């Protein structure tokens, strides 16, 4: 399974390591993902999601129902 946030679609970015001598080599900036269980009261069930920590902060602020609704509108959740 790829390292992609299931709610926001965040994925790894590509950039350069730059040495003191300005030599550049490719590197990858990985996403900070966590596996988390959420209880959805409207559906009366638990859901396990692999989400970024930024999405977790958004869920804590807005609630899981609102974030899932927005993710469905954006096309990240079926």
UniProtKB/TrEMBL annotation:
Keywords: Ribonucleoprotein, Ribosomal protein. It holds the Pfam family Ribosomal_L28. One of its GO terms (biological process) is translation. InterPro entries: Ribosomal_bL28, Ribosomal_bL28/bL31-like_sf, Ribosomal_bL28_bact-type, Ribosomal_bL28_sf. GO terms for cellular component: ribonucleoprotein complex; ribosome. GO terms for molecular function: structural constituent of ribosome. NCBIfam families: L28. PANTHER family: 39S RIBOSOMAL PROTEIN L28, MITOCHONDRIAL (PTHR13528), LARGE RIBOSOMAL SUBUNIT PROTEIN BL28M (PTHR13528:SF2). Belongs to the bacterial ribosomal protein bL28 family. This is Large ribosomal subunit protein bL28. It comes from Flavobacterium urocaniciphilum.
């Amino acid at each position: 399974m790829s390292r992609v946030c299931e709610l926001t679609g965040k994925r790894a970015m590509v950039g350069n390591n730059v040495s003191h001598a300005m030599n550049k080599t490719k590197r990858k900036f990985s996403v900070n993902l966590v596996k988390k269980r959420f209880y959805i009261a409207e559906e009366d069930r638990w859901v396990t999601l692999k989400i970024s920590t930024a999405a977790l902060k958004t869920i804590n602020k807005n609630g899981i129902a609102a974030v899932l609704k927005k993710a469905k509108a954006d096309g990240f959740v079926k």
